[in-house]
């Protein structure tokens, strides 16, 4: 989901989508006797839809926005690709699930109204932002300085990293990003109707965002990383990949801190 490397791009894309795709759907109307309206004599039927948590047109707009945002590379994508290179495609799902857990926490924060508090408090925002930036820089430096090791033992150590370890790393990569909360504060209202059940709407929004992000992270970015695995067969290839992903992590961390 939204990441510190591309907040500006994601925000512009989302706002455009919200403006262009979110369509107001007419709510159910009744006559004085409480009956649903019938089709007019000209044969043009009037819509008489029962209220639902999220209208189909609104959900399609939400789905489109989620796809565009998820495909925009960021810290989550980098983390997913790094995991896929180290432990393989199947086990990389643990890092992806950690990222989704962070996303759900951020969505709960926004739904509970705490997002407004964080966005309105320069101190709280700065503390979370700099912690997130420091964590990404730490991951990047560690990756950059990792020495190539062609031994079977080293390969086994990387390949057998615990699922919990990847889950926690994915959780912190996304959670320590206050800009994601601010982004959700701007993003969610375009898909929420105050005259409908907020619980139902937030549940549908959460499921849509998570399912889309898991699909894109695992079946796109993790698959893309498989193409780099042939480079891990040599010391030079390992060194280049470590430096590449280390640099990307550090760059994302710096952007989170200064933008």
Automatic annotation (TrEMBL):
A molecular function GO annotation: homoserine transmembrane transporter activity
Subcellular localization(s) per the UniProt record: Cell membrane
Pfam family, one: LysE
Key word Signal present: no
UniProt superkingdom: Bacteria
Presence of keyword Ribonucleoprotein: no
Membrane topology term: Multi-pass membrane protein
TM region(s), chain numbering: 59-80, 92-118, 124-141, 171-192, 204-228, 240-258
InterPro entries registered for this protein in UniProt: LeuE-type
Keywords: Cell membrane, Membrane, Transmembrane, Transmembrane helix
A single cellular component GO annotation: plasma membrane
Protein name: Homoserine/homoserine lactone efflux protein
Natural source organism: Gordonia insulae
Gene that this polypeptide is encoded by: rhtB
């Amino acid at each position: 989901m939204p990441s510190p490397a591309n907040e500006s791009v994601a925000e512009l894309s989302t706002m455009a989508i919200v403006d262009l795709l979110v369509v107001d759907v007419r709510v159910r109307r009744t006559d004085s006797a409480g009956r649903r309206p019938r089709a007019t004599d000209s044969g043009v039927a009037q819509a008489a839809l029962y209220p639902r948590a999220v209208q189909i047109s609104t959900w399609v707009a939400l789905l489109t926005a989620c796809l565009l945002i998820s495909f925009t590379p960021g810290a989550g994508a980098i983390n997913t690709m790094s995991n896929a290179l180290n432990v393989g495609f199947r086990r990389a799902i643990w890092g992806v699930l950690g990222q989704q857990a962070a996303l759900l926490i951020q969505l709960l924060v926004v739904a509970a109204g705490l997002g407004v508090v964080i966005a309105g408090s320069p101190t709280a925002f700065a503390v979370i932002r700099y912690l997130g930036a420091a964590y990404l820089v730490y991951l990047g430096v560690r990756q950059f300085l990792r020495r190539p090791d062609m031994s079977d033992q080293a390969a086994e150590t990387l390949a057998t990293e615990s699922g919990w370890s990847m889950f926690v790393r994915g959780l912190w990569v996304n959670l320590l990003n206050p800009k994601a909360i601010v982004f959700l504060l701007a993003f969610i209202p375009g898909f929420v109707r105050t005259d409908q059940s907020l619980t139902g709407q937030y549940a549908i929004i959460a499921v849509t965002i998570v399912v889309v992000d898991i699909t894109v992270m695992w079946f796109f970015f993790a698959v893309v990383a498989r193409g780099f695995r042939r480079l891990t067969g040599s010391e030079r290839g390992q060194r280049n990949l470590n430096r590449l992903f280390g640099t990307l992590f550090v760059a994302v961390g710096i952007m989170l801190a200064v933008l």
